[in-house]
Specification:
Blueprint lengths: L2 H14 L3 E7 L8 E7 L7 E11 L1 H8 L1 H11 L10 E9 L11 E5 L7 E5 L3 E3 L6 H4 L2 H15 L7 E5 L4 H12 L3 E6 L4 H6 L4 E4 L12 E6 L6 H5 L2 E9 L7 H17 L4 E3 L6 H12 L7 E6 L3 H9 L6 E5 L2
Helix pairs in contact: 2-11, 5-6
């Protein structure tokens, strides 16, 4: 690193020191009412980190569950000795404002996207290795949807279900953020896709290329004669036993989502039930997606090939970010919900 670059980095950090920004801060737990827009310090740029001016940040079910299930998360964080982060958000797209020592891939002015923590804020400090350059033709709002939902859908289908061309895949809960990605990725992998969703999402899911769309309010997929090589359960609104009935004898059940009702007790109860079934020899699996830029590059290739289109239901300005989290918790959201900087 040149001495001139070092001086520039120190100047950037000195300029940011003492400045404040707006961020969505969680103060308590129980509902979206505990989320407040506050003035907090702009993060200081450190070794290997990049300061990004947020242009868009998508909302995930994780943000809603973190707000409503705070007590269990607090206990888990203490057990794991994790640092408490009151600012919500983990998906990001924006413009590099400053770079820290050791950063070589980005410079101020670059448009980037990827993952970080505390992204519901005007400025975000992110690891260099968790970001990619944003293609000019990809809007910030769409780029911001790829990190959690894209990783989860891709890894569920490609890495855990190991979907092959011609296989039959059922996606239960296809109308949300992960589901809309899963439908398109399954098709890109060559599968025949049956998508189960609520009545509000039928048209959206059908437009994404599903071979068959089932309105869950009118028909139970478990009563149909078709059998599937893989069931990807995102909604968690039907029992594991019911969904496993539609599997082929050698099929696999993948749990990637959680119901909005039942809280963390319901979530952990389902995970435990899956663990018990797995020990009994059943092909069931629960996983937490791993972040990495290689999978983001894979998703970008699908977008460039016209096989993937991030679907967005609504966007909210940062000033209304609390309502964005609240809307995700209603279970009525279609596709992704995005927060934008004013």
């Amino acid at each position: 690193m040149s001495s001139a670059m070092g001086v520039s980095e120190m100047a950037d950090q000195a300029a940011n020191r003492g400045k404040t920004m707006r961020a969505l801060v969680q103060e308590g737990r129980g509902s979206a009412d505990v989320l407040h827009l506050r003035d907090v310090p702009v993060p200081e740029v450190t070794e290997g980190r990049v300061l990004v001016r947020m242009r868009a940040a998508s909302v995930n079910a994780l943000d809603w569950h973190s707000t409503h299930g705070g007590l269990i998360l607090e206990i888990a964080a203490k057990v794991m000795r994790s640092k408490d982060e009151p600012v919500r958000g983990v998906d990001l797209a924006g413009t590099v404002e400053a770079v820290g020592p050791g950063v070589t891939r980005f410079k101020p002015g670059d448009e980037v996207f990827g993952g970080s923590i505390a992204t519901f804020a005007e400025y975000v400090r992110a690891r260099e290795d968790r970001l990619l350059p944003k293609p000019p033709e990809l809007p910030f709002e769409q780029a911001a949807t790829l990190n959690v939902a894209g990783h989860t859908a891709l890894q569920a289908l490609r890495d855990h279900a190991k979907v092959q061309p011609g296989q039959r895949v059922l996606i239960h809960g296809a109308g949300g953020g992960v589901g809309t990605f899963a439908v398109q990725i399954a098709k890109a992998l060559g599968a025949q896709v049956t998508a189960v969703t609520g009545p509000r999402n039928v048209d959206v899911v059908r437009s994404l290329g599903a071979d068959l769309v089932i309105d869950d309010s009118k028909e139970r997929v478990s009563r149909r004669p078709e059998r599937y090589d893989a069931v990807i359960d995102i909604a968690a609104t039907r029992s594991i036993s019911e969904l496993r009935r539609v599997l082929k004898p050698d099929g696999i059940f993948i749990q990637v989502g959680a119901a909005k009702h039942g809280g963390w007790i319901g979530i952990f109860g389902r995970i435990i039930a899956l663990a018990v079934r797995k020990r009994m020899g059943q092909r069931v699996k629960f996983f937490v997606a791993k972040s990495g830029t290689s999978d983001l590059e894979f998703l970008l290739d699908l977008i460039a090939a016209g096989k993937l289109r991030p679907a967005i239901d609504r966007t909210y300005p940062l000033a209304e970010a609390r309502e964005a989290v609240r809307y995700v918790g209603t279970g009525q959201a279609r596709a992704k919900i995005v927060i934008t900087a004013e």
